[in-house]
Design a protein that fits this description.
The protein is an all-alpha fold. Helices cover 84% and strands 0% of the residues. Helix 1 packs antiparallel against helix 4. The mean pLDDT is 91.
Length: 173
């Protein structure tokens, strides 16, 4: 495997892990919030998109023979716990979680697109498509009051840091 292939394999590993984590966060939020409120319906729509992203990355990882992260069991529990905890704080905190994560994912996908250039049109096309949807999630979360969550700067900063750590760990482990 050459350097470009190894770099794209690491990208796929991180992206698949991230989409898996997103589905678990939303599962935790919906387990607490139910499906009745408008915020829960917004989260459920975002969760459907994340599940589609995950399915596509799962297939791409398998087709390209990329080793998934060994940390997936941790992301399963951590994602669900983060989602449930933010939903227990309240709907605005759940939306703050989404806004924080999508801020990091939009930045992360942008860095990946810069690194890929025109070297992998299939992967860059998927990342561009998913990046646009992640920006929509961020904007919907802000519109739903994410910035009015209790201790928003602290909550957002902690979640963004955790997201960056998860990206770094999943890249290598």
């Amino acid at each position: 495997m050459n350097a470009d292939e190894a770099q794209r394999a690491a990208m796929l590993r991180v992206d698949q892990a991230g989409e898996y984590g997103a589905t678990r966060i939303y599962a935790g939020q919906l387990a607490v919030m139910g499906q009745r409120s408008s915020d829960a319906r917004t989260i459920a729509r975002m969760a459907e998109q994340e599940a589609r992203h995950r399915e596509i990355f799962d297939a791409l990882v398998a087709r390209r023979g990329v080793r998934p992260t060994a940390l997936q069991p941790i992301w399963n529990v951590a994602g669900f716990a983060l989602g449930a905890a933010t939903a227990l704080i309240g709907p605005r905190a759940a939306m703050a979680c989404t806004a924080a994560i999508e801020t990091e994912i939009e930045r992360h996908y942008g860095e990946q697109l810069d690194a890929i250039g025109d070297g992998d049109p299939e992967l860059s096309g998927l990342i561009e498509e998913f990046r646009a949807e992640e920006v929509e999630h961020h904007d919907a979360a802000i519109a739903a009051g994410a910035e009015q969550a209790p201790a928003y700067p602290l909550l957002s900063g902690a979640i963004r840091l955790g997201c960056r750590i998860a990206i770094g760990l999943s890249r290598h482990i």
